[in-house]
Amino acid sequence: MPDELRLYLKERFAVLGPVSPGRFEAELAKRVGSPAKREPVLRAWRAYLSGGGREAVRSFYREILRVPKGEALVYGMHLPFLEFYAREVPSRLEGRVLEVGAFTGALVGYLQRKRPELSFHALEGVEEAVELGKKRVPEVVWHAAWAEEAELPPFDTLLLLSVFPEGLVDQGLESRLEAPSFWKQFAFFERLPRFARLLQPGGLLVYGHGPFLGKSPEGVEEGLRRLGFYQVERVGEGEYFLVLARRPEVLAVQEEAWEAEAPPEEAPLRVPVLAQARDLAEVRELLAAGRYAEVLAHLPEGVEGEAACLRGRALFALSRYAEAEEVLRRALSEEAEDLRAMVLVELGEYERARPRLEALAGRGGRYRLYLGRVYLSLGRYADALRQFVESGLPEAEGYVREALERITERMRRFAREGEWAEVSRRAEFVEDLAPGLLTREMLRLGLKAALIQGLFARAERYARRLADLDEAEGFLGLALVALRVRSPLEVRPLDDLKSVEPYLTEALARAEIPEALLLLGMLREREGRYAEALRLLERSAERGEGEVAGLAYHHLAQVKRALRRPLREVLGDHKRAHALRAYPAPYLFQLAQEALKGGEEVLARELLSRARDAGLAEVAEADLMGLLSLVERLEGPWAAFNVLYQALGRTPRPPLELLAMAYRLSRAFRESPEAEAVRGQYLAALYAEGRGEEVERLLLEELRAHPQALEVLFDLAEHYEAKGDWRQAAEQWQKALEVALYREKDLELAREVLRNLLFLRPHDESLSLYLEELKAVSRGLEALGESPKALPETKEELLQEGLPQFHGEHLLVVGGHTQLRSRLVPLLEARGLRVDWFDADTAGVGKEALRRIQNRLEKAHGLMIVSSYVGHDFSEPVRLEAERLGVPVHVIPGRARGATGFLRALKAFAPELFKRALKGVQ
To answer: Residue 455: how many CA atoms within 13 Å on its side-chain side?
Structure first.
C-alpha cells in the first residue's frame, strides 16, 4: 500500500519522499534560490505556525503554490500520515464522500482510485488550490468554500483528515493535550457542529489530527460522545490515530453549554515524594524488572534530571515515544540524549536522530540497529545493511531482510535499464559484507551482470553458489563460463559444446531454460542428431525472448532443412528469426533467391523486401547482376532500374554492360529524368568505345518508337553533325523545329532550333517561312494578352540574337565536336572574343594534351565545359585546376542542343568573363 501511494504521488504530484517540517526552509531554498523570493513564503509559513487563523492558512497555501513543486513540499510534510490514511480509510468509506480541506486533491484522488464505485467530493477554501486540483484530479467533484460556510447537501462520509487543527496550532503547544485543553484550544464544541452540518444523520465521520501538535484522541472521542455521536471508536495508536463516529439525528447539546462548562477536577494522584538516592535506586530496580507502570507511578510528569531519564526509559519501553521524547529532553544528560536519538527514530524524525546515532555507532548493538533504520528510511540501503549486520542483534534479522529486498529492487531496476555495472557493484557489496546474505535473486542478477561484463571468475563463483542451491541458472552459468561467452549468442562454430553438455543436462533437469535448450539443440545439430535438435530448438523458440528466440528459430530452420522439411516451413522459421535477430542483407538475398527457385514467389518477394530494408548496397557490391535479375522478376523493371541507377551513382566508370542493362530497363519509362540520364551515359560510353554506328542505330530505333521525342531528335542531329553529314543533321533539326512549334507550342525552343538550322543552311530561303510563322505565333500571343519575347526581323539578326560584344576576353572551351567548334569559333572571334577550343576530335590523349590545356588555362578569363557524351576526357582535371587558379567555370549539363545551346550558355556566362577581365588578369 505505501509503495502504491508513493508511486501515485510521484507520478501525479511529484512527491519524492517525506519532508520534515523542521527542514521546510532548507527544502524551500532548494526550489527558490533567491532570498527575496523566499521571504513572502517564509513570512506566511511563520504566520501559519503561530496559529494565525484562516487568513494565515489561505496566505500560506497561496504562496506555496507559487513555488515550483510547492504542493509536493506540503504533501511531503504530511506523507507518513497520508500513508496511514491510505491504509486505514478506504475500506471504511461508504456512499457519497466529502473530504474537507482537500488542498489539490492528492488523498481524495487516491481514495477514488481505490473505491471507484463511490462518489467523491472535495471541499477547499483556497481558490488557487481548487483550480489546480481540478486539473490534477478531474474525476472528483470540487467545491470552493470554507467548511464552516459551505452550503452543500449532506454526505454519507465526512473526512476531517489533518484539517481540523489548521490555523489554531501554535509552535509553543504541547504535542499531547488533555481533553479539556484540547476542547478549548481548538474550540471543539463551537466548530465541530459546523462541520457536522455536511454529514447526514447516521453518516460516518472520520477524524485524523495529522502532523499537528495538540493531539488528544481521548478528547476527540469524549467530545463526540458528548455531542451525541455514537459507535465512536479509535483506530491506531500514538501519533497515528483515527476517530470514527456516526452522526445522530440531532446534536445532543448546544455548543455554548460546553464552552462555559469546566471539566470536573480529578482527585490528585498520590505519588510518593522521592528521597533522592534511595528512591531512585528503587526505581532503577523496578525498571530493570520491567515493571514500567510502577516506575511511572513513582516518577511524576514534571521530574527532571536523572529521574526524567528513568521515566523516559520507562515510557520508551511502553512505546509511548512522544511522551518519552519530551521527558528525555528535560533530563539534560548524555545518557538521555543517547536514548532520545532512538526515540526520534521511532517518531520518524530520522534526520534529527542521524548525527547522534552516527557518533554512537561505534558502540555497536542497538545504536547500530537504530542507525540502520535511519539509513533505511533515507534510501541508503547499503549503509543500512552494513549497520544491521554489524549490530549482531537477533532483532536485526527482519531489518536485514528488508534492506536486502530494497537492494534487490534497485538491482532489478538497474537490470531493466541495462545498468549492469550497478547491478554487479551491489551484488559484490553484499558478498563482501557476508556471502551468506546473497539471496537467490541477487545471485541470479549478479551472475547475469558478471557474464555481460565478461567477469568470468566472479560469474563462476555466483554460478556455483546457485548450483549448490539446486538452481538451473547456476548450471547454465557454469556452461557459459566454461565456454568463455557472455551469452549463447556469442557461441562460435568451433566452440566445444560437448564439454559443457553435463552442465546443460543438469540445468534442463531442473527447469527448461531457453538458453540451455538452445545450446543443447545446437550441440545436437552439430552431432547430426536432428530429431533431438528439432525438439530442443522448438521448445527454446517457444519459451525464449528476443535474440535468444531469434537464434533458436535460425538453427531450427537449418535443422528442418537438413530433415528435408517443406521449403515454406524452413523459410517461415527464417522469417521469425529475422524478426527477432536481424539477418544481414546478403543472407536475406540468398534466402529470397532460394525461395524463388523453390517456387515460393510470395515468400521471395517478402524476403527481398526485408533485404531492401536492411540495405541492398552490400548485396549490389557482391552480386549486382544476380540482384538485378531477382528484383526485375519479383518487383518489375522500375524497381530493378532504381537499384541499378543507385549502383551507377556509386561507380566512377561504370562498365558498358551495366549501362546497356540500365538502358534496357529504362525503356518502359523512357521520359523520366533518370531514364534520360542513363541514356546519355550509355551513348557516351558507346562513343568512347568508338561504336558510333551502334549509337546511330539506337537513336533511330528510339525515333521509330517515338517519332516526336525532342531529346532523341536533338541527339540524332548532333550525331549527324559530328559525322559531318549536314543534310541529315538539317533534316533532324527541321523535324525538331516542327515538333517544338506545332506539338509542344514552345516558342523559345522553336527559336533555338531555327537558329541551329540557320547555322547549317544560312542561304536556305525556306527557313524565312518558319521565321515568319514564329512572328505570327508571337503576334497571336500578344493578342491573347501575353508578352512573348520579340523576334528579330531578319535571319542574320536571329543568328546573333542576345550575344554580347566582347573586347578581347579569353575563353577556354573543352568538349564538343569538331563541327561545332568550326562553326562557332569564327562567329565568337568576330564578336571580339578570343577562343581556345579543345574538342573531343582534335585534342590528343595523354599528359601532353592536359599540360597544353592547363597552360592556356592560366591566362584564360573563363572555362566552359560541354558536358555531353562527346565531352572531353580531361574535363574533370581541367575543372579542378581552374578552381584552384580562381578561373570561373561554366558547365553545360547534358547535350548542348547544337550551336544555339552553346550560345545560350555563353550569354549566361559572359558577366563572369567581364568580371575576370576587369580584375586585370592577363
So the answer is: 18
On the question of pLDDT at 922 being above 70, the answer is: no
899 close to 884: Cβ distance less than 8 angstroms: no
Q: Which of 692, 654, 713 is nearest to 898 (CA)?
A: 713
Contact indicator for 177, 185 with CB cutoff of 8 Å: yes
- Distance set, CA 328 to CA 274, 296, 313, 314, 885 (Å): 19, 14, 8, 11, 94
- Other C-beta atoms closer than 10 Å to the C-beta of 248 total 14
Q: Is the CA virtual torsion 59, 60, 63, 66 positive or negative? A: negative
- Check the CA dihedral 588-593-594-595 and report its sign: positive
- Exposure pattern of 836-875 as b/e (b: 16+ CB <10 Å)? bbbbbeebeeeeebbeebbeebeebbbbbbbbbbbbbbbb
Contact (Cβ atoms closer than 8 angstroms) between residue 579 and residue 546: no
Q: In whole angstroms, what is the distance from residue 664 CA to residue 157 CA?
A: 85
| Count of residues in the chain | 922
pLDDT score for 255: 44
Give SS3 for 652.
coil
Q: Which three cell numbers stand for residue 600?
A: 515460393
Residues 69, 41: Cα–Cα separation, whole Å = 13
Residue 26: other Cβ atoms inside 10 A:
11
State how far the Cα of 776 lies from the Cα of 780, in Å rounded to an integer. 6
For residues 455, 461, 466 and 468, what is the CA-based torsion angle, rounded to 10 degrees? 160
Lay out the sheet containing 889-892: strands in order across: 834-838, 810-815, 862-866, 889-892
DSSP 741: I
3-state secondary structure (DSSP) of residue 107: helix
SS3 103: coil
Residue 893 DSSP SS3: coil
- For residue 224 the three cell numbers come to 463526540
d(CA 563, CA 456): 37
- 243: β partners: 207, 234
Please state the rounded mean pLDDT for residues 810-818: 85
Rounded CA-CA distance 438/862 in Å is: 82
Structure confidence at residue 846 (pLDDT): 54
Whether the Cβ atoms of residue 205 and residue 246 lie closer than 8 Å to each other:
yes
Phi, psi angle pair for 891, to nearest 5°: -105, 125
DSSP state string for 241-269: EEEEEE--SS-SS-HHHHHHPPPPPPPPP
Q: What's the pLDDT at 636? A: 80
Farthest CA pair distance, the chain: 148
888 exposed, middle or buried (CB, 10 Å; 0-12, 13-18, 19+)? middle
pTM of the model: 0.53
Please tell me the distance from the alpha carbon of residue 723 to that of residue 817, in angstroms, as a whole number: 9
Averaged pLDDT of the chain: 84
Question: Is it the case that residue 605 has pLDDT exceeding 90?
Answer: no
Rounded to a whole number of angstroms, the CA Rg of the chain reads 48
Provide the total of helices (H) and of strands (E) in the chain, helices listed first. Answer: 45, 11
Is residue 360 over pLDDT 70? yes
Cα end-to-end span (Å), the chain: 91
Q: What is the pLDDT of residue 270?
A: 39
Long-range contacts of 491-496 (CB under 8 A, 24+ apart): 491/519, 491/522
What does the pLDDT average to over 874-885? 82
The continuous run of DSSP H or E covering 45 comes out as: helix 35-49
Query: Contact 600/593 with Cβ under 8 angstroms?
Result: no
pLDDT tens digits for 537-577? 999 999 888 899 999 999 999 999 999 999 999 999 998 99
What residue type is assigned to position 843 of the chain?
A: A
Answer yes or no: is pLDDT of 871 > 50: no
Closest CA to 96 of 124, 115, 81: 115
- Location of C-alpha cell 501511494: 5
